[in-house]
Amino acid sequence: MRVNVARVWEDSDYEKVRNLCEDNDGWVEVYKKKDITICTQNIENSSYQMIKAIALFPDVSAVVAYDVLHDSAYRAKWDKYMIKQENIGIINPNNDVCYYSLNSVAPIRPRDFVMQRSWLETDKDRLICSHSVCHEDYPPAKGCIRATVLLSGYLIKEKEQGCEVIYISHSDPKGKLPTWLVNRVTKVVAPKVIKKLHKACLGYPEWKEKHHPTWKPWSVPEQQMDLARVDLIKCQPKDYDQEIIDESNISAMSVSTKDDEDEDSLKN
């Protein structure tokens, strides 16, 4: 599976993500607890499932959730798995390219990514979408495995009380991990990610008041977007030669019933 081409997203691209978020056909519910539901879907010609998380944040506005997901300075405060993040540049005011690397639970190796992010605000909702691209100045970092995000997206909807956040993701972690384990761990980890996001949203207004409160280039790019344009010639798709490291002994880890997310709530 190769990465997508870096390009300006069109309305049809956003509509595809919106439909995946809102359409229930083909999705199987695997977790439900309080305000969080996790579903999976098998994807043709892929060993890895697409996952969808649906969450209600009754005490968070859609604007705050949208800002938290955009604000890279704040992410470093709440995402403990983040190793490095770097903005590479913009394609246009609603599409950028960035690099980031993430730690994981031992013995899984860290993964890194070059991602195109695309976002759209409408009268009824907000979308933030991502997929892997390449950039010749950002090959896989030493000690990391370059993973591929085939598609991910957040759909954020304002509700009478709070907001609804729908997240989809279809990724290939690369390396040498058992497929069954990747699919299993994803189901267990997804509720944790949503809970962390909710907690981050609750703390964001106070944090933002002390950290450039008016700086929101994702909403006012004409006034605040100061990144250089990305040279798309440097973003041609490429397959990297990477050391294949056997991580299959991760099966000895506790992905397990001791997890604080009550794995017994998962439906096999």
UniProtKB/TrEMBL annotation:
Coiled-coil segments: none
Ranges of residues in domain START: 23-206
Pfam families: START
Swiss-Prot/TrEMBL keywords: Acetylation, Cell projection, Cilium, Cytoplasm, Flagellum, Lipid transport, Lipid-binding, Membrane, Phosphoprotein, Transport
PROSITE patterns: START (PS50848)
CC terms in the record's Gene Ontology section: cytosol; membrane; motile cilium
SMART domains cross-referenced by the UniProt entry: START (SM00234)
Protein's cellular compartments: Cell projection, Cilium, Flagellum; Cytoplasm; Membrane
One GO term of the biological process aspect: lipid transport
Superkingdom per UniProt: Eukaryota
Cited PANTHER family: PHOSPHATIDYLCHOLINE TRANSFER PROTEIN, START DOMAIN-CONTAINING PROTEIN
Record-given protein name: START domain-containing protein 10
Biological source species: Caenorhabditis remanei (Caenorhabditis vulgaris)
